[in-house]
Write a structure and sequence with these properties.
By secondary structure, the chain is of the alpha/beta class. It has 6 helices and 8 strands. Helix 1 links the parallel strand 2 and strand 3. The radius of gyration is 18 Å and the shape is globular.
Length: 262
């Protein structure tokens, strides 16, 4: 049984309210001159949990290599990166705490930088928050990594928000079939969607970590317009609403180099 099944619990729980001071946005110092775009990284979490996440807990640390890869891919293009700090560890059912924190962070970002395009990059629960926050006026792109995709989540028409899902084919925490179903629903609704599938990966993104990082950085830079999108992704994002093409693009698996023989 997938652990994702436990992530549907807690719909009637009481989230409680933490102070607004806990809705933090850890943002890089903006470069001199106009900012061209921004990337917000959304860490994973739990189905339920009202404790305050550790500032540098495992879910945040997991996103740091992605931030470094994105910085390298967008270097010289005045792109700012930031990490959303949640008030609570969990989604917490109807309270949807990470979604609220992401929306608050986007509002705060707009207040600091003005109307710059924003790409959301979220993992697991953060992927769910990214997909749900995609309708915010600042968001122009989403990269959802191994996202948690409950079938009851709404999928609005977002024709101006290009969305890329990346999932390991044997993820045992969040269901790849669920992200495939969501991608198809989103495309039918009118959202440009691409879905990439990684063989040999895992939910924590530790196996084939370099592929996760390079792919995310290349796609994010492409969505911001600081570099061309990878051709298969660019083509998939132009597919019509009823096309299945581009919703299960296999990412090449790089073999681990063997040490030289003595």
């Amino acid at each position: 049984m997938r652990r994702e099944a436990a992530m549907t619990a807690g719909e009637t729980g009481t989230a409680g309210e933490a102070g607004e001071e806990y809705r933090r946005l850890a943002l890089d110092a903006p470069p001199p001159g106009p900012v061209r775009g921004a990337v917000l990284l959304l860490p994973g979490g739990r189905a339920d949990g009202h404790s305050r996440p550790a500032r540098f807990g495992p879910t945040v640390l997991r996103m740091l290599p992605f931030r470094s890869a994105i910085r390298s891919a967008t270097a010289g293009h005045a792109v700012v990166t930031g990490i959303v700090r949640y008030r609570h560890r969990g989604w917490n059912g109807r309270h949807e705490d990470p979604l609220r924190d992401t929306e608050a962070a986007l509002d705060r970002l707009a207040g600091r930088l003005g109307p710059v395009p924003v790409v959301l990059v979220g993992h697991s629960m953060g992927g769910r928050a990214a997909l749900r926050a995609a309708g915010h006026p600042a968001v122009t792109g989403v990269v959802a990594l191994a996202p948690w995709c409950p079938p009851q989540d709404p999928v609005p028409a977002l024709p101006d928000v290009r969305t890329v899902i990346v999932h390991a084919e044997r993820d045992r925490v969040t269901d790849p079939a669920a992200s495939a179903a969501l991608a198809a629903r989103a495309r039918r609704a009118g959202t440009p969607v691409c879905r990439l599938v990684l063989a040999g990966g895992d939910h924590a993104m530790l196996r084939q970590a370099g592929t996760w990082h390079r792919t995310t950085a290349a796609v994010t830079a492409g969505l911001l317009g600081t570099a061309p999108l990878p051709p298969p992704v660019a083509h998939a994002l132009t597919e019509g609403p009823d096309s299945p093409s581009g919703l299960a693009i296999a990412l090449p698996r790089r073999a681990t180099p063997r040490p030289p023989r003595a």
